[in-house]
Amino acid sequence: MMQSVSRNCCFVNSLRSRWTPILSASRGVINRTELSFHSSAAAWSSQKITTQWADPAMQQYKFWNREESTEKGKYSYLLEISPESMKREAKILSLSGPDDDANTALHKGSLPMGAKLLGIGESLQDFDSYRDSKPNVLFVSPSCPRAMVQLPLVLAAFPTIEWVHVRSAGIDFVVCDELTEFRQKVQVTNAKGQFSSSLAEYVMMACSYFAKDLPRLMKQQQAKNWEKYDIEELRGKTMGIVGYGDIGRSCAKLATVYGMRVVALRRRPYLSKRDPLLDAVYGTDKASLNELMSVSDYIVCSAPSTVETRGMVNADAFTHVKENAVFINLGRGPVVDESALIKALQSGRLKGAALDVFQEEPLPLDNPLWDLDNVMISPHNMDQTSTFMHEATEFFVNENLPRFICGEELLNPVDIEAGY
């Protein structure tokens, strides 16, 4: 028995060990010549992290990625083998549509030890009977109508709530001025990392769509026309990524496999100083955006919709675009000045565009984008696998919820004021 306990203690201690790399802060453009390349874990062992907004290339990264995360189910297992690891209970309210099948893992599944679902509702009134239960966790899904209105009301009515988890990667459907009032009292996390790989695949498909001139190919096939034509390689081309989060980095990963050069723009460029996928990283100032537009053959917009980013890719940015460049938007429609984008496409300044998101969705029938031959339109579904939302809920149940119960740091922290 003592030997078994000893083994368990050693295992628990090993689970709690941490890689701790450090980042040095710098400003301006960071080029690949300044990047360090570290492929082995040992290279990071003597370094320490100083911020939760860590570089995705680092070992201690506080954001989830379903392909790369190496500690899947770690704390669920810890609770099973070591019940004394439970530091607190998780009493959960689910601000969701009651018929949302994607929430099955939470609403009908088996929860970790110490977790209890109190109730499901779409408004504050639906939770009235739980006021004495002192809930401390709030799960929010896009299936809740008017979640932006209801979330602050629920937080105000239940001051015991410590943690809000949003089932989607984008939190623009809940961010409002009222929510920022709770930023010091409540931690917010999201489902970042669940949708990145499918969107990265879409980006490479979009690049190939224009590089190989698939519209022409399909027309020739339909006409039974055997006519050869020149195509372009992606190898040697430059991909510019506006918004270098988990989705942007997944795009960079695939682009480098194709032999592309990758440059990126992000609010904190110093966090990607050592990212081996990047040839250069820029800040988010106007001059940096224009520089990225001017050097990129394929421009990927994966930025979230926030007060700072709305209309960020505007007419001035499109005047700096490289000749024959292709614009790909998979982040949020409001980040791009759609009128300026249409003009750039109509004038030939842009070779083409692949668009999965728009300012208004569904895209109105009278929108000029429908009639442009150099545009590939998809109905905001390029991350919509048959299981993608189910997996997002499972991440909450199997990964972050056990962390909360064990008193550990949560994955995917969100800055409410920044909007992501």
Automatic annotation (TrEMBL):
Taxonomy, superkingdom: Eukaryota
PANTHER family for this protein: 2-HACID_DH_C DOMAIN-CONTAINING PROTEIN (PTHR43333), D-ISOMER SPECIFIC 2-HYDROXYACID DEHYDROGENASE NAD-BINDING DOMAIN-CONTAINING PROTEIN (PTHR43333:SF1)
GO molecular function term, any single one: oxidoreductase activity
Record PROSITE patterns: D_2_HYDROXYACID_DH_3
Sequence ranges assigned to domain D-isomer specific 2-hydroxyacid dehydrogenase NAD-binding in this UniProt record: 209-380
Organism for this UniProt entry: Nitzschia inconspicua
Pfam families named among the record's database cross-references: 2-Hacid_dh_C
Protein name: 2-hydroxyacid dehydrogenase
Membrane-spanning ranges: none
Keyword Transferase carried by entry: no
Keywords of this entry: NAD, Oxidoreductase
